[in-house]
Design a protein that fits this description.
By secondary structure, this protein is mainly alpha-helical. It has 13 helices and two strands; from the N terminus they run ααααααααββααααα. The protein has one domain. About 65% of the residues lie in helices and about 0% in strands. Helix 1 packs antiparallel against helix 2, helix 1 crosses helix 9 and helix 1 crosses helix 10.
Length: about 325
């Protein structure tokens, strides 16, 4: 997979575990991580960014690497869940879970073929475009960042969820830029006193953060608190993951992190049957958390094994842009 930073892939491994957990009955176990488990992927992308070519070629390559799996995995999930309606296709084009924020009823639901986690890929594509505008035109970065802050606040009042997460892209671009700054200015080298202070502030603010769900533009009590939680949580995770390198736990997380894209996209194809099987075997509602852990295990193992197979096939690997 080329030259990679192990602690970043370990962080992605933890991140994908949390993402899968958020879609299972084990959701209550991750309450402390709701403010960072999605931002960490944007943060890590900025952290590993390297400006090797001009804006146009960089964006073109990014488009191919994200849209190829988006299209292929959507088609695969349509077949798995046997949903072939025009509404499903239009939903995949719109790439949001719903047309309106979740509190609005009646609502229009999209991505109902087990593909609703895939909003992340189109969000990442728009995020990269806005992020590139900062780094490729760095002398204007102050004005660009200020515009992104204003756009985030303004879009928070938008009555609909915009396609491809356009309404949240300014915020996620700032997450990505913070990751880029963390690498450039060696944030991970700060003293442990600063790390402890950031951790205490993270926990304190998380207690008052409210309900957060980036996919449907739910920022909790304050978008500024959410921004701090996303950046601080991502920083703390990356800092801690350096100490997991060359450990057994780290090797497992590393493997998950390097195959997180496939797991992210196809997790529902494993979670849904795993949940049905668990409920058939253990109909007692008191086993919900245990059932959620079972769903996580199946989704993580199944997604990892499937990703291994996809990477071993040259034709499929090229189709999905895994080796480009």
């Amino acid at each position: 997979m080329g030259n990679r930073l192990d602690h970043v892939d370990i962080a992605k491994g933890i991140g994908i575990i949390l993402v899968v957990c958020s879609h299972t009955d084990a959701l209550p176990l991750m309450w402390l991580f709701m403010g960072m488990f999605v931002p960490v992927f944007y943060f890590c992308s900025g952290y590993t960014f390297s400006q090797k070519s001009a804006l146009g070629p960089s964006m073109g390559k990014r488009f191919r690497k994200l849209m190829a799996p988006y299209i292929v995995f959507n088609v695969l999930l349509f077949c798995v869940f046997r949903h072939f309606s025009l509404r499903e296709v239009l939903g995949a084009v719109y790439s949001r879970y719903s047309l309106y924020p979740l509190a609005v009823e009646p609502n229009v639901k999209f991505l109902t073929s087990g593909n609703y986690p895939m909003w992340f890929l189109t969000s990442m594509l728009v995020t990269y475009l806005l992020f590139y505008l900062i780094v490729y035109y760095e002398r204007h970065r102050t004005y660009t960042i200020a515009a992104y802050v204003v756009a985030t606040i303004a879009f928070a009042w938008c009555p609909v969820l915009l396609p491809w997460s356009i309404d949240t892209a300014a915020l996620t671009a700032l997450f990505m830029y913070c990751g880029h700054m963390a690498r450039r200015h060696q944030w991970l080298s700060v003293s442990r006193r600063w790390v402890l202070l950031i951790a205490v502030l993270y926990v304190a603010l998380h207690l008052v953060a409210g309900t957060i769900n980036l996919s449907v533009r739910m920022y909790g009590t304050s978008v500024f608190i959410y921004f701090f939680l996303g950046v601080a949580g991502s920083f703390l995770l990356l800092w801690a993951c350096r100490y997991l390198e060359n450990t057994r736990a780290g090797s497992v997380l590393l493997a998950l992190g390097r195959h997180s894209l496939t797991i992210f996209c196809l997790q529902m194809a494993f979670i849904v049957p795993a949940k049905a099987l668990w409920q058939h075997l253990f109909p007692d509602a008191q086993t919900a958390i245990a059932g959620g852990l079972f769903q996580m295990l199946v989704a993580l193992a199944g997604g990892w094994l499937l990703s291994i197979l996809l990477h071993r096939s040259r034709r499929l690997s090229r189709l999905l842009q895994f080796t480009s």
